[in-house]
Amino acid sequence: MLIDIEDGTEVPGVDDGEAGSAVARALRAAWSGADPGAATRPRPAAGRRWSGPRVLLRRGEPSGIGALLDLALAGDPERVQGGVRLRRVPSAGGRYPVEAHVVADGRAWRYDPVDHALAVPVDGGGGGAPGSGGGVPPPGGGGTTVVLSLVPQRTVWRYGKRSLPVLLLDLGHAIGALLAAAPVAGYAARAEIGRPARGLAAEAALPWRDGAVRWPGAAPEYPLAAVRLDPVRSRPAFPDRSGAPVHHADPSGVPARAAYPSGSPVRPRYEHPGGADAPGSAPIPGAGGAGPGSEPALHASLADAVRVVEDALAELGEGAPEGVDFAAPAQAPPVAAVLERCSSPWEEITAAAGASGRGGPPVERAPAPGSVPGGPRPPSADRPGPPSPPAPPEQERSPGAPPEQSRSSGSPSGGPVDPADAARARIGADRVVAVRPAGVPGLGEALAPRSCGQPVVAEAAHLLLLLGAPESEPDPWRALAEHVGAGIAAHEAWLWATGQGRAVRPAGCWIDAVLAAGERRGRLIHSLAIGDIDIHQGL
């Protein structure tokens, strides 16, 4: 396969022209590769804690909203890096800009992924009125919605003007994690983007003002997606941490309801990077006289980057002419893969690691479906890696047409799904290139300087390259759909690769790279690095 990488922007940065949409300006700024500067400034917390009573959700539940959030978004109690609790869902730079609000029975709950807890609810409908009672949202009773919003200042702290693409990819990964976990937790799910942010804020009882959600003393928040959940009777057996299925009798999977006294609507409090109770933690906004301004503002050097990114998100929040729905995968990934998914170190992913048969110290993970320790590998792991992409479908999309996002992945036989095929099923075969970098002359040298400081990506044993439209003046709504769709596609491919026992790591920040492979041409917007090693065999 011959692959060329070329520069794709005619306008290198927003400073060279303010024409076009706010989204286009923010994307051009990201593609320009502007150096975000040293990340030594005061770091904003990678999550919010919430004042007032909370419901602590149990881990390992068989079904219900607690199980869904545990599998999709929760922090991992055993994984902490750089003072940040790592979570099920990946995030560029560990910044975790996605906030989740659970809406059920007309009430909105704030989710704390670090403690795996729900804050006492407020009444829905946009009034923000205090709730008079509480309990965990039930799995039935007309469905549940998870509203997802972005807090861009967390990502801008690390990536500066490069932030908009990685923010939208993070949103896509969060959606992909919820869609994949839903059938395990007993839900049918679909996701929506492109709806007006004001409507999503009202649905989740969020304080909307001046084009954003604005809590007292808090960074602005932009609701951009909703995941709709409906309970279903059948679901796969939920394994424990050893991979053994748990036969559960309780269909709810949630604790009994508990009554709480009425009070003021909950507001976020902020976690110090060293932990919620570390010395120097910020006071609770709106409580104890702290008031607005209790969350430290980003350094002045980032003011322009914040403006560029927030203007783009506000524009996307105005709502697309037509919304876009994402269906859950037609075939759910292996349950064990949902449990054990994590971003692997580069040492396990490079071609050198595969050639040597080792990729660093052993990694303890649950057995892959169909495998036993010391026994034969799962059938899908016998393949050397993602195959070359098939020929484009007979009826190509016309230039400028929006991508078909409602497709979902699945194998005709119901067996394992190849990771590349899962991505193709989600965003289209013409938007996915599966390649061994070592087998394509010059590819590694072209990718490394465009990788936002991750040149080792060119040494991966396999890469899934996910493409968008090559234009330097993209339509805002197409850009939203392409980036979110790429995040979902990468997440689903990641889960299937994990089910094969492969080491996997997403790489989402790319500088101005337009890829041409045969008759296909598209902008590189996301990628998934996959190792050769079967991590279940002999590491």
From TrEMBL:
InterPro entries: Nitroreductase-like. Residues 236-298, 352-421 are annotated as: Disordered. Residues 275-285, 403-420 have a biased composition (Low complexity). It comes from the Bacteria. Residues 375-393 have a biased composition (Pro residues). This is Uncharacterized protein.
